[in-house]
């Protein structure tokens, strides 16, 4: 935030609109997912319960009538009388979890996007330098002064990159571990289910976790490519 361009001219030179457009498109995609994906994820178990479960039968409720395949003491998840309370609780957990995921993703994505923006700006500054100026007495001082400013700026960005790595290393590792465990668990549930709605419900988190894992890799690739472009600038 301290080095983010404040004046309009500097923002144009650093191509801020490219950053803004990228974040806007990403925000719209996540917004659509939150509307349609979460609605289906939360609503399908309730729809199946209302349409297909015989409440007078007294049969225990299976995981396919719940949003999360989990365990609760005293057989609360299997109880028909406790189902409304469990459904409200699971809905709260779903919204809370996806909000935490989106918040972390937003912080990570915005940080990486700004990091890439600064690298691209350094590359543009290097391209604007004319090495022929070193042969001219008056312009050589201007050339080396511009180069010195770019080097200092570049070193500062590298220091920020090191802080970025230290900040997100553990969280990315834990996210990947938890996502892998969750996908294995949901695949196991799908393999042991013959119900189409249940399979759709179980496969939905897998797609989300694969997408976010892919996106994390993509963000790392963006940083690597931005830093590599400096060698050809």
Automatic annotation (TrEMBL):
Bilayer topology: Multi-pass membrane protein
Keyword Transferase: no
Keywords: Cell membrane, Membrane, Olfaction, Receptor, Sensory transduction, Transducer, Transmembrane, Transmembrane helix
GO MF terms held by the record: odorant binding; olfactory receptor activity
The organism's place on the tree of life at top rank: Eukaryota
Localization per record: Cell membrane
Single GO cellular component term: plasma membrane
Gene Ontology terms describing biological process: signal transduction
Record Pfam families: 7tm_6
Main localization of the protein described in the UniProt heading: membrane
Residues that span the membrane, as ranges: 29-50, 170-190, 196-214
PANTHER family reported for this sequence: ODORANT RECEPTOR (PTHR21137), ODORANT RECEPTOR 19A-RELATED (PTHR21137:SF35)
Protein name as annotated: Odorant receptor
Species per Swiss-Prot/TrEMBL record: Calliphora stygia
